[in-house]
Automatic annotation (TrEMBL):
This is Sec translocon accessory complex subunit YajC. Pfam families: YajC (PF02699). It comes from the Bacteria. Signal peptide: none annotated. It is found in: Cell membrane. It is a single-pass membrane protein. Keywords: Cell membrane, Membrane, Protein transport, Translocation, Transmembrane, Transmembrane helix, Transport. InterPro entries: Preprotein_translocase_YajC. GO terms for biological process: protein transport.
Length: 114
């Protein structure tokens, strides 16, 4: 035995470890597909539903309805145009706002009680 072998261990060849099995195409694509499905049901679908409800509300908008805008201005609908709505916020004070700026329609009598 060589005296250097006592100080430096001799490296012995080891058997090669078996290669890990390659993941199949289905398991590779399963996570992104699952992630897209979760995003659709949690984010996209509810947003589309709210947009449809808002459009229906704007289509049903009539003169005399009490509304509140996205900016927090409350008033009564005085006139309805194709893209704009005239909202009367006080006696003789009317504002023209875009139809999309109407956040919600209030129940009748809400403004008088406030």
């Amino acid at each position: 035995m060589n005296p250097i072998d006592l100080l430096i261990p001799v490296a012995h060849a080891q058997a090669a470890a078996p290669a890990p099995a390659a993941p199949g195409l289905l398991s590779t694509l399963l996570f992104p597909i699952l992630l897209i499905a979760i995003m659709y049901f949690l984010m996209i679908r509810p947003q589309i539903k709210r947009q449809k409800e808002h459009k229906v509300m704007l289509d049903k908008l009539a003169r005399g309805d009490e509304v509140i805008t996205n900016g927090g201005i409350a008033g009564t609908v005085a006139a309805i145009g194709e893209a704009f709505v005239t909202v009367e916020v006080a006696d003789g004070v009317q504002l023209r706002v875009q139809k999309g700026a109407i956040a919600s329609v209030l129940p009748k009598g809400t403004l008088k009680s406030a």
